[in-house]
Amino acid sequence: MTVVLEGRDITQDYHVRGGMFGGAKTVRALKGVSFSVEKGKTLAIVGESGSGKSTLARIIALIDPPSGGELLIEGQPVNISHKRPGPVLRSKVQMVFQNPYGSLNPRQKVGSVLMEPLVINKPEIPAEERRLLAEAMLVKVGLGHEHFNRYPHMFSGGQRQRIAIARALMLNPSLLVLDEPVSALDLSVQAQVLNLLADLQEEFGLTYVFVSHDLSVVRYIADDVMVISQGEAVEQGTREAVFAHPAHPYTRQLFAATPETDVEAIRARVAKRQAARQASGVAR
Ligand code: ADP
Ligand code: MG
With a threshold of 0.85, does the pTM exceed it? Predict the structure, then answer.
């Protein structure tokens, strides 16, 4: 098995105002977190609001450099002192944010949204081919050629998240970091987008880091789970192990707080996904 992502003892400090006598103080948002994710797998990062999920997601997505620790992508150490990763590394890791409204420029047509990463990172690709690649990707995410010249406001929330996913895939990344990607969507739309993500993962052999506070979503998409609380990984393991035997008191508390109203729906979805995996013959 190929390890696509590895983090070793990652820390993150934020310097904020409001220290004693109005000075600056340091908030340690991540206190030494380690993890690794194999190719084609999904690591879910779970925890309540403020636990450090987005902080870690932004580090893994190469948006923010960590204060300390080491990050390796496909075995290559990421030089954390450089704020901007080079184009090769940049194209390997892409991020999808929670809010598809905020992450799309309202004045930019969908086609242009999708082609932009190519314009910036692969200028050698001719304009005509760029357009064909963008149109093909629209189809991959369940949209169509006819959406190419439309503006983001003409789409529903779920469609906008499909656009954001399509854009993230334009550079052919190996790792997708998804920070609460379905949290802003209606339940039925959530299921559609999660199914799309599962399909794309199979098709492109993608590795996912999936941030969520929603345990039913985690149960559906995760291979491995990392539970974080106050900047520390308090539990790590396979989905089956963590759900069957939550070891840490915090995890038990987290699970106890989750309404179990849709257990049957969750079981059905899990069974369906497992069947699909077996049918496609992918060893995982
Ligand atoms: P989560 O995504 O799990 O809700 P975050 O990673 O956003 O958590 O935040 C973790 C902690 O770091 C919180 O205490 C939050 O207030 C703090 N924090 C996050 N971003 C910043 C920032 N840019 N500056 C200062 N503190 C921050
Ligand atoms: Mg967050």
Answer: yes
